[in-house]
């Protein structure tokens, strides 16, 4: 088994907790023998990726030459087993999309034409990504051969490892995209962060989460648009809203919903940990039937906050909408007019209600049971420990990452993938 050997290596050692054993029990590949082969491959990969999520420069100091060589071989073997088949399949899909474009009169139906062209562009992007994966594999194998011919050149092995790791990242991304089968998974995402009560520390923590998600999007080659930001006078933020308009953003980020805790030891070195909290909510964007969904006007309270000072202009445009039957509230302030913000908030409310209806298994939003709506403040998602040791533990999946700063720098891929994988398995 790959996982048993990986977990036992020094790169995953914890100095305070026996996190290696915890990680092993959670992610051992033997636990997923009966799972779907596609999900099993990804789950094994996630364990390796999370275990080695520390800075790439550090890993060379922690593993020997033999271990580094074995990691290259494992990554190449795994990618070769999937890449060629995937490339052939995606190229066939791309060709079919090109045929549809040639046969369809793009001027006849602009809306359908747009969807066709988007699918063609997405197919081309997937094919290019898999071709890049193929090149990375060839690069890793070639550099490894040169290293062996040059009497085991350690520097060349490091280059080969970098290439194999890049190939693994591309394959992980591709496999995750194939696991996104939910009704809203292909939509963009509106991510809302709200700081917990108490002093300034939750506000600072909320801003750190904001930066983490922005950096994550940047690492994927996309951009997150901050459409609402409410700063706290002493520093940090009270709340913020980000829109990620790229495809599948909701599928990737939906597992982030809930409370995120930052834990740190107290200054007097007592055993008690101090906690700062913030909640994250994720709402799908641009749902196809959101515009057609009717909500009785009597069920809505539409208002604008009254705030004076530097933010007065922005708050004059802000629209808040509360849905009385469910108690759900949404806000929009990122558009250039009061009307545009009203439409954006209304569509956001519809999308949120549709997700809740799906979660409760009811046919329409009028059947939503208010008492069964999940309170995000009671839904713990993740713990980030900053002192006396550094560790990030995802409560829902059990996955752990030993480098807090690495995670806060936007490297949350293994955590996101773990949520996607757990949804498929369950």
From TrEMBL:
Domain Peptide chain release factor residues, every copy: 138-256
Secretion signal, residue range per the UniProt entry: none
GO molecular function: translation release factor activity
One of the Pfam families matching this protein, by short name: PCRF
A single Gene Ontology CC term: cytoplasm
InterPro entries given in the database record: PCRF, Pep_chain_release_fac_I, Pep_chain_release_fac_I_sf
Positions in coiled-coil regions: none
Family matches, as PANTHER family: PEPTIDE CHAIN RELEASE FACTOR 2, PEPTIDE CHAIN RELEASE FACTOR PRFB3, CHLOROPLASTIC
Family per similarity comment: Belongs to the prokaryotic/mitochondrial release factor family.
Name of the protein in its database record: Peptide chain release factor domain-containing protein
Organism of origin: Canavalia gladiata (Sword bean)
């Amino acid at each position: 088994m790959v996982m048993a050997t990986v977990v036992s290596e020094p790169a995953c050692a914890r100095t305070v907790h026996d996190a290696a054993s915890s990680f092993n029990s959670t992610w051992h590949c033997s636990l997923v023998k009966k799972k779907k082969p596609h999900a099993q491959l990804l789950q094994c990969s996630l364990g390796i990726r999370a275990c080695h999520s520390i800075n790439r420069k550090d890993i060379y100091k922690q593993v020997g030459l033999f271990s580094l060589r074995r990691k290259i071989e494992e990554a190449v073997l795994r990618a070769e087993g999937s890449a060629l088949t995937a490339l052939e399949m995606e190229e066939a899909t791309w060709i079919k999309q090109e045929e549809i474009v040639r046969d369809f009169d793009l001027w006849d139906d602009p809306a359908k034409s747009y969807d066709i062209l988007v699918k063609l562009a997405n197919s081309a992007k997937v094919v290019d990504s898999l071709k890049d994966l193929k090149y990375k594999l060839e690069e890793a194998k070639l550099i490894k051969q040169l290293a062996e011919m040059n009497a085991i050149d350690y520097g060349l092995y490091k280059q080969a490892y970098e290439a194999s790791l890049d190939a693994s990242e591309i394959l992980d991304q591709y496999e995750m995209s194939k696991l996104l089968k939910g009704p809203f998974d292909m939509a963009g995402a509106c991510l809302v962060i709200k700081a917990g009560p108490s002093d300034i520390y939750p506000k600072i923590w909320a801003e750190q989460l904001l930066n983490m998600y922005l950096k994550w999007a940047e690492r994927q080659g996309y951009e997150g648009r901050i459409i609402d930001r409410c700063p706290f006078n002493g520093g940090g933020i009270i709340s913020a809203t980000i829109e990620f308009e790229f495809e599948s953003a909701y599928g990737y980020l939906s597992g982030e919903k809930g409370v995120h805790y930052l834990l740190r030891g107290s200054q007097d070195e007592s055993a008690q940990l101090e906690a700062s909290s913030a909640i994250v909510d994720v709402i799908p964007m641009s749902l196809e039937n959101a515009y057609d969904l009717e909500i009785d006007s009597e069920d809505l309270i539409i208002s604008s906050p009254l705030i004076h000072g530097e933010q007065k202009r922005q708050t004059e445009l802000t629209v808040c909408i509360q849905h009385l039957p469910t108690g759900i509230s949404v806000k929009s302030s990122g558009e250039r007019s009061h009307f545009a913000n009203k439409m954006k908030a209304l569509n956001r409310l519809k999308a949120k209600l549709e997700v809740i209806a799906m979660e409760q298994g009811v046919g329409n939003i009028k059947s939503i049971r208010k008492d069964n709506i999940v309170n995000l403040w009671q839904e713990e998602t993740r713990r980030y420990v900053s002192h006396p040791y550094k560790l990030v533990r995802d409560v829902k999946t059990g996955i752990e990452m030993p480098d807090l700063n690495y995670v806060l720098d936007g490297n949350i891929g293994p955590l996101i993938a773990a949520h996607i994988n757990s949804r498929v398995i369950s």
